[in-house]
Amino acid sequence: MKSSLAPGIRLVTSFSRDSRYRGFTLVLTFLFYTAYHLSRKPISIVKGQLHRNCSTVIRPADLNVTDNSTWCDWAPFDQDNYKTLFGALDNSFLIAYAIGMFFSGMFGERVPLRYYLSAGMLLSGLFTCLFGLGFYLDIHSIWYYACIQAMNGLMQTTGWPAVVACVGNWFGKGKRGFIMGIWNSHTSVGNILGSLIAGVYVSSSWGMSFIVPGLIIASTGVLCFFLLVEKPEDVNCSSPQHHDSAAQENAEREPLLRHSTVANEEQIFSSTSPVSNESVEVVEDHSEAISFCGALSIPGVVEFSLCLLFAKLVSYTFLYWLPLYISNVAHFDAKEAGDMSTLFDVGGIVGGIVAGLVSDHTGGRATTCAVMLTLAAPMLFLYNSIGQSSIGATIAMLMVCGALVNGPYALITTAVSADLGTHESLRGNSRALSTVTAIIDGTGSIGAALGPLLAGVISPTGWTNVFYMLISSDVLACLFLSRLVYKEVQGWCGRTSRLPGFKEI
């Protein structure tokens, strides 16, 4: 009697070989960048433990302390300038990350992605663990922690350009916004897991809040080395461009099909001639790594890069300062504030998916971002005004703000970067994707560095001023997209014969 296939195997085999590899790559890269963000989050949770309100802490019976209001703090963060020192730690990481990102994309195009990602995750894990070892080695030097953060920032630049390039290799432009909207939730999932893991250890031994995430990202580096497949051609799968084209793109190219067919026939008939080698050389030229200036000249790269600078400024200010803000304003302890802050990332997951769906349906990446940024500004004002009035208001406002702040950020760093990296002006040069992604995210990382720095400088004057800074950044991010939005609206209104969307500008 012939045995029947198990239901799980039957489900797997119902998908084509190409689909299985695509799904596997999507899940694998999701895990990789979840680990990257998971290892960045602990510093924001541990801040509340490094400097506490010692009057609310139960003093051990065997501790002899007199007139010391900071006995429970961790030096050097026991001084009045502790917010400035926290800002220095954040910026050691973020400035190194921003600088390294501009070079990371170029390295990513010239080094195998599997090796590049594996080495990056292993080294990120090492430096994350070294920060946590400061607790067990009783290290109290700000220079030690700042240097570790800077080195970790450099290592973390290996992640984003490489994973976006890998996903871009496997997925075409059809429904890219939706697919990447779901996939980009790894950012928020990593933040949530990082907060929860760090929160488990923060009150007892905060060093483990870094060591455990460090071991996790190092483990995913090993996983990457053994399992990642960079391109469909490596396993004899078909390129997504062969079958994933959007219907509108096919319609636009229809008048050119006859010309393309003639050109293909000429190439076939000439393949037996002595000049056939010349056509091979042309294909190789198209796969050369693009220059920095060449990537900047792609229409839309500069506008989206500057928009992301201010959008990421807002997002990373929340990433690094939200738990401390909740702790100060709502008077939660470090663990409770960290757990509450995860609601911002839950909203970010929803916002990223919605942004991807809307931009796929409308074809307007810039307009989708602009609308969400416009709505985010008043929501930030409301959160600061009434967000802490009750638990229900806090939960609702955190999720709404998370969706509106992280939605545009997620869309630009994923679908927009992938679209620009495969822009028609590149004539099929797929190796430009890593450099374009690095330029956009590197420019955004300048904002990511400025946000926490400005928050550290402004917060002593009051948290309201910090929110005014965030609202102003949202408005500026929206203004940088105004030209692209105008072009998209023009297309929708039928005042241009070209397809709507930034890629046609």
Structure commentary:
The protein is mainly alpha-helical and 505 residues long. It contains 21 helices and no strands. The longest helix is centred in the last third of the chain and has 31 residues, at 391-421.
Keywords, please?
505 residues; mainly alpha; Growth Hormone, Chain: A; 21 helices; 72% helix; 0% strand; globular
Q: How confident is the prediction overall: mean pLDDT?
A: 80
Secondary-structure element order, N to C: HHHHHHHHHHHHHHHHHHHHH
Sheet with most strands = none
What's the count of strands?
0
CATH class: Mainly Alpha
What would you say the CATH architecture is? Up-down Bundle
Fraction of residues in β-strands: under 5%
CA-CA gap between termini: 63 Å
Short structural summary:
The protein has 505 residues and is mostly helical. Helices cover 72% and strands 0% of the residues.
Topology:
Elements (H helix, E strand, L loop, with lengths): L6 H7 L3 H24 L1 H9 L31 H29 L2 H24 L5 H15 L2 H12 L5 H8 L2 H16 L6 H20 L19 H7 L3 H13 L6 H11 L5 H5 L4 H30 L3 H29 L2 H22 L4 H31 L11 H26 L4 H17 L2 H11 L13
Helix pairs in contact: 2-5, 2-7, 2-9, 2-10, 3-9, 3-15, 3-16, 4-6, 4-19, 5-6, 5-7, 5-10, 7-19, 8-16, 8-18, 9-10, 9-16, 15-16, 15-18, 15-19, 15-20, 16-17, 16-18, 17-18, 17-20, 18-19, 19-20
